[in-house]
Design goal:
The chain has 5 helices and 4 strands, in the order αβαβββααα. By secondary structure, the chain is an alpha+beta fold. The strands form 2 sheets. A two-stranded parallel sheet has the order 1-2. Strands 3-4 form a two-stranded antiparallel ribbon.
Length: about 120
């Protein structure tokens, strides 16, 4: 409420942690609605809900964070130049590179876990 009254920033890590997707989507829409948010408050959040990407019309206010020899953040507009592509599908398909778990990594982990169980 305070950010809507005074402006400023609300920073939330993993916004979906205690809410379902529709509640999170509604909160995002509140921040986008100038009648609800007349002071231009900013909601800065992280999420694992790829579907929330589709709440945004523009790509330049979304950053994709990856761990590639260190943590990097890349503006989605640098990778996905068109706004008519469904962002959640681009994310989940692996088009954005580094956003989808690698099958080989899962299999290596499974092998290691099975080997440990066989030893124990």
């Amino acid at each position: 409420m305070r950010t809507f009254e005074t402006g400023g920033y609300l920073v939330v890590d993993e916004l979906e942690n205690h809410f379902n997707k529709e509640i999170v989507s509604t909160l995002i829409r509140f921040y986008r609605d100038k009648r609800v948010n007349p002071k231009g408050a900013v909601l800065l959040f992280t999420t694992h809900y790829a579907e929330l990407l589709d709440e945004f019309e523009r790509n330049d206010n979304i950053y994709i964070v990856r761990n590639r020899n260190g943590i990097t953040a890349q503006n989605l507009s640098d990778v996905l130049r068109r706004n008519d592509i469904k962002k959640s599908e681009a994310y989940e398909s692996g088009f954005l590179e580094g956003t989808v778990p690698v099958y080989e990594s899962y299999m290596a982990l499974k092998k290691m876990l099975l080997a440990q169980q066989a030893e124990g």
